[in-house]
User: What shape does this take?
Amino acid sequence: MATGIPKTRWGSEESEFATKSASGNAPEVSLSYAGKRPENDILASDRAKLIELWRHLSTPLGGGSQLYFGDNLPVLGRLLQDPSVRGQVRLIYIDPPYATQSVFQSRSQADAYRDLLSGAHYIEFMRERLVLLRELLADDGSIYVHLDENMAFYIKAIMDEVFGRANYRNWITRKKCNPKNYTRKTYGNVADFILFYTKSDRYTWNRPYDDWTSERAEKEYQYTEERTGRRYKKVPLHAPGVRNGETGKPWRGVNPPPGKHWQFTPKTLDEMDVRGEIYWSSNDNPRRKIYLDESQGVPVQDIWLEFRDAHNQNIEITGYPTEKNPDLLARIIGASSNPGDLVLDCFSGSGTTLAVAAQLNRRWLGIDNSPEAISATLRRFAKGLERMGDFVSLRKPPSNGDPGETLPLFSDNQIADTGAQCSSERNPVIDFALFATQPYAGELDAVLTQWLSWI
Ligand SMILES: C[S@@+](CC[C@H](N)C(=O)[O-])C[C@H]1O[C@@H](n2cnc3c(N)ncnc32)[C@H](O)[C@@H]1O
Assistant: This one.
């Protein structure tokens, strides 16, 4: 649709249709595929049996931070039974596998995780988890789902079903890497996407702002007050609509323009004028001054260019493949939660969400079924991040006669020093409990021994 003011959000015929179809529980539009389970079956899925591997003594179990090693489906099922978690999670961020048909390897070239699901299997894998996540989310909670173009459109349709189309907030486009030297006949692929939904229309929201650049500020705030040197812009003092009260009458002999009224009462306008906040043009047309130094910054929009993956921004990393930029998580956690809130990531990988949540004084829940991921998370909690330079790779497994290959995940031209802010995590994170799902075959024993030697 072209830029402009839409006549209606949903046209009148569509509204009538929407009301009818919303009268049952069925969504207006739904995705149909083989193996789609009824929600009730998903909600009755098996719950994980857990063993506690480690706990910091001061960690209160109910509502405290917790890291789980295991498949997230039964762990989420288990968390649903915990009244300190069900309906209490203020923010969920997930960065699941993207159906890339690859095996991702860590710095030690051990397989970190397999991303081999595709089509309907992938969609249902995601839907099962999204249904449980919805139940864990607080009524004023938010969920962000990070994907690439492979599956984002399908999962958008599924999220409309699970969370309701009315609770869709943004489709955020993130620049994930530096420009690539493409040999394929396509435009370079530098974007991925974050779908932002809420549980209701009453949700936690701390609007993020970007700082003004001097160029942009000078363009928007063109005038400088002689007396004070303050930069300002001029905006109308009137608003649409006729009023019969005081705001519809002349002020200082000036009528509001036809069909409009003054935004303030004459008394307030007088006070503003005394403070020098009104600009009078040569033909006595009053306008309001809006000062640059009173602006919080430029409200953040839905294209994010500054959070390329850690490997692409030459900032410090854990070395786990596909780890996200901590500053990206800081933006999301800051916008959609407050200190003390519970933040959940059930594809937690190297623990980016968890470490940033801890830094920002949120409680957190993390789940991952890769020992490499738990190992990277514990190392990061104890020792922080490290300068990059480690080899991180992606293995294409053999298929249909193709022998497969191992490729570096980040080519040299993607690794540029941009002089970006380095967001090192320095404070050890130790206030949490660590669990594994049963059966547990000792996959983390060596990692735990190391963890105990670090803290
Ligand atoms: C894209 S990575 C997440 C990276 C993470 N955002 C970070 O910054 O490091 C996806 C993660 O999901 C985990 N994963 C995949 N399937 C899972 C499952 N069924 N249960 C738990 N974790 C799973 C993988 O082990 C992998 O660590």
In short: Residues 5-24, 410-422 have pLDDT under 50 and may be disordered. Residues 119-136 form the longest helix (18 residues).
